[in-house]
């Protein structure tokens, strides 16, 4: 996920960030508010990382967070499973 997407979905992604970096407080996450620079600074402050280490951790996390929330596109694959029911109904016709 690119940083613009993370910034736009920060409220939804704060929980994921809190899970990975449990030393971040709710106030920290509110302060970060999707800003990559602020995020880097808070990781440096809370974990004693240098800037490069903090940036690397954030970039890795950004690659692992889902790009969409479960409700963003209602199950395209799930709707495909409905065709199985239609196929079995077709078998019943003689």
Number of strands: 0
The whole-number mean of residue pLDDT values reads: 82
Shape descriptor: globular
- Distance, first to last CA: 51 Å
Query: Counting H and I runs of at least 4 residues, what is the number of helices?
Result: 6
**Helix-strand pattern:** HHHHHH
Helical amount = over 70%
Largest sheet geometry: none
- Briefly, what CATH class of the domain at 3-67? Mainly Alpha
Protein structure class: mainly alpha
Q: Rounded to an integer, what's the Rg over CA atoms? A: 20 Å
Which topology of the domain at 3-67 does CATH recognise? Protein Yjbj, Chain: A
CATH superfamily of the domain at 3-67: YjbJ
Commentary on this structure:
The chain has 94 residues and is mainly alpha-helical. It has a domain at 3-67: YjbJ (Protein Yjbj, Chain: A, Orthogonal Bundle). Helices cover 71% and strands 0% of the residues. The chain has helices at residues 3-8, 10-20, 26-32, 36-47, 51-64, 76-92. Helix 3 packs antiparallel against helix 4 (36-47) and helix 4 crosses helix 5.
Summarize the helices and strands and which ones pair or pack.
Blueprint: H1 3-8, H2 10-20, H3 26-32, H4 36-47, H5 51-64, H6 76-92
């Amino acid at each position: 996920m690119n940083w613009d997407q993370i910034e736009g979905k920060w409220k939804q992604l704060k929980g994921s960030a809190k899970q990975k970096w449990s030393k971040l407080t709710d106030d920290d996450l509110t302060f970060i508010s999707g800003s990559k620079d602020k995020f880097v600074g808070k990781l440096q402050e809370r974990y004693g990382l240098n800037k490069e280490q903090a940036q690397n951790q954030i970039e890795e996390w950004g690659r692992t967070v889902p790009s969409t929330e479960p409700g963003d596109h209602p199950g395209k694959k799930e709707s495909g499973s409905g065709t199985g029911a239609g196929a079995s109904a077709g078998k019943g016709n003689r």
